[in-house]
Amino acid sequence: MVGYVVWEAEKKGEPTYRSMVKDDVDNVYRRKSTRYCTAHYIPHKALYKVVLEDIKRNALIAKEYEGELSEYAKKLANGNESGRFKRMQKELDKLKQRDHELDTIITKLFEQNALGVISDERFVSMSTGYEAEQKEAKARILELQEQLQQRNADGNNTTKFLNAVRKYSEITELNPSVGTGL
Q: Measuring CA to CA, which residue among 156, 133, 148 is closest to residue 88?
């Protein structure tokens, strides 16, 4: 995509990174100055111009193809995650149901112990096992909820990106807030 955009810009006669930097670097080579390494030097003006034009160009392209870009970003974010997401959601639902069942079982077990239906030793051994299972289930529930929240946050990143594109499509100058915002 980037190569195509550069090719289109060169075809239209618009300035590109190569053309802007080439003019300044060629002048440096002709002077053969020893103040700085000419092979690694890009003047501030050229870099400023290149970065500003690149931001404008990419923002305009993104704005023009916003729908396709949004779909593509969501597709990338989701990838093969949709099946994984469904499995995680299903597992979370089962664990919540099991947690509720364990609460009921432990309550009934306590009542049976209080009524003298089961012995104290039996109550202790059964309740220990159920409580351990419930502790594991709750830990897994928290883990799955965090993963699902992270996935939802990734979807919000696409929205944030598209809002930034809209904001910076009409940029006229570079400043620290622009660099931070992007």
A: 148
Q: How far apart are CA 47 and CA 55, in angstroms?
A: 12
Q: Within this chain, do residues 80 and 146 fall inside the same structural domain, yes or no?
A: yes
Digit-coded pLDDT (tens) for 64-90: 887 887 777 777 666 656 678 888 899
23 falls within a domain: yes
Distance (Å) of CA 162 to CA 75, 90, 101, 171: 15, 31, 45, 15
Question: What whole-number distance in Å separates Cα of residue 45 and Cα of residue 14?
Answer: 17
> Which residue range is the domain that position 134 belongs to?
76-164
Report the pLDDT averaged over residues 122-134: 92
Q: What is the token pair recorded at 30? A: 């002709």
Q: Quick check: helix, strand or coil at residue 172?
A: coil
Shared domain for 156 and 98, answered yes or no, is yes
Does the residue 178 lie in any domain?
Answer: no
